[in-house]
Amino acid sequence: MAKAFGETSTTDEVLSGVNLKGKRVLVTGVSSGLGVETARSLVAHGAQVVGAARDLEKTDAATEEVRKDAAANGGSFEVVALDLASLESVGACADGLLKKGELFDVIISNAGVMATPFGHTEDGFETQFGTNHLGHFVLVNSIVPLLGTGGRLINLASAGHRFANVDLADPNFERTPYDPWVAYGRSKTANILFAVAFDLRHRDRGIRAAAVHPGGIRTELGRHMDPAQWQAMVDQINQQLAAEGKGPFQYKTIPQGAATSVWAGFVASADQIGGHYCENCHVSQIVPEDKQLSVNSEGVRAYALDRKAAEALWRKSEEQVGEHF
Fold this sequence. Notes:
Helices cover 41% and strands 14% of the residues. It contains twelve helices and eight strands. The protein has an eight-stranded mixed beta sheet, sandwiched between helices. Helix 2 (33-43) packs parallel to helix 4, helix 5 (87-100) packs parallel to helix 6 (127-142) and helix 6 (127-142) packs parallel to helix 7 (180-202). The radius of gyration is 18 Å and the shape is globular. The N and C termini lie far apart (40 Å). The mean pLDDT is 93.
């Protein structure tokens, strides 16, 4: 009988008894928070992890425990340079991985930014959509030949997808007033839709994809918000939770936040998670758009799993980056 996991499960609990020796994993965003813990938990069970990050000096300091756990448990850990806000950097990273030619069992697209001031990536895309979605879209599709049969793509999304659907008519806020949370919502919806479209394209090869929500965690992701803004958001969440008859908001620990990523990548069955949105170590249910939900409540909006929308996003993404996949 399969073990039952939930919102308080940690990475080590989810991977208890799981031997990952021989498994090779790419994890983006390993310079802090969830990326570091994801890598640590995998190498601690024998996996070979390639971590991608923009700031290699920061990453070297942040992953000291990862390297120790790798050495102690038969795993391995190496770092490659990747700036998702630069398609030149994304291309160079992909080319390096392809040249090396070693297959991956799982790709975990973990890196991201949240609620940034209005700005653009090196290639002129709105910062959050360009970094969170388009950078990963190009990287993953460029290294598809390295995903073997039975491989998986796990995209880090968020309950924040409920802030906004994608806007393919105005992805760069050229005609829409910029709101950092709307932009974040669009990018997180895009992460889910990308997983849906990728799963449809590759499931016949035995490759599956899913999106996961890690939960509310204190990480560097919130660095663009001042403490007063953050507290106001928590107060609002607590009001919504109280209206639902639930207790106050509780932050997850980082090992709890990374648990759903490793659960979807290595513990759940491929058919269970393929093409779905997961949270708290299970597949989430669709909730109607007219149902008010706090950020800490479970549920995925139907627009984030819509196959036609996923295909439309894929085509628009190809148009934006100037490549066909």
